[in-house]
Amino acid sequence: MGETVGNRISLSEEMINRAASQAMRAHNSGGRPFILDKPRGLSVAIFAFAGSWLPDDWFTHPPFGETKMDTSTFPSLRSVGNDEVAVVNASFLRRFKAILDQLSLEKEVRKVVADHKQVLFTGHSWGAAMAILATLYFLEKGGTNQNPPRCITFGSPLVGDWIFGHAVRREKWSDLFIHFVMRFDIIPRIMLCPASIEHQQILNYFNPRSEFHGKPIDPHLAFYLKVMRSAASVATHDACNLMGCTNPLLENLRNFVDLSPYRPFGTFIFCTGNGKLVVVKNPDAALQMLFYTAQLSQEEAAEIAQRSLYEHLVYDNELQECLGMQNVVYLDDSLEELPLSSDSGPAIVNTTLNDLGLSTEARLCLRAAGGLENRRLRNQAKIDDNKQKIKEELSKLSGYQEKGETRELGYYDAFKSQEEKDDFDANVSRLVLAGMWDEIIEMLRRSELPDEFENREELIELGTLYRRLVEPLDIANYYRNLKNEDTGTYMTRGRPKRYRYAQRWLEHAEKKPSGWRSESCFWAEVEELCSIKTGCNNGPLQDTKKQKIQQLQKRLIEWIHDGCLGKDVVLEGSTFVKWWKTLPSEYRSEPESSMIANLIHG
Amino acid sequence: MSQAPLFSSAGELANLVVNSNLIDVAWANIPEIQIDPAAFPCSVEPMVDYSPTPNRTIVVFASSPNCTQYPLREGGDLVQSSLFQFLCPNECSSVSINKAALYLFTSLESQLHGLKTKLSEREGQLIITGHSLGGSVAALFTLYLLDSMDKKSKCRPICITFGSPLIGDFGLQHSQWNSFFLHVVSNKDPVPGLFLPSRRSPPTSSHSQTSVYKPFGTYLLCSEHGCACFDDPDLILKILTVASSEVSGELQVVDYGELLRKLKNKAIWKGPQLAGERSGNPFSDGIVMELKTIGIDTAKHNIDISEMEKEARSLTKNTKASEAKKLNNIKKAMAQLEWYKKKAEDEKKGYYDCFRNEEKTRHVKVQGLMAELTTYWEDMVAEAERKPQKEGKSFRTGWLFAGTTYRRMVEPLDIADFYKGGDGRDYINSKRSQHYKLLEQWYKEAAKPPTREDLDSKKKKVSVLLTEDSCFWAHVEEAILSCQSLTNANSTTEQRESSWGNLVMFGEYVMEQIENCAVSPEIFLSGSSFMTWWGEYKAYIHNFRNFYSSRLVEYMKRGSYNQYG
Question: With an 8 Å Cβ cutoff, is B313 touching chain A?
Answer without folding.
Answer: no
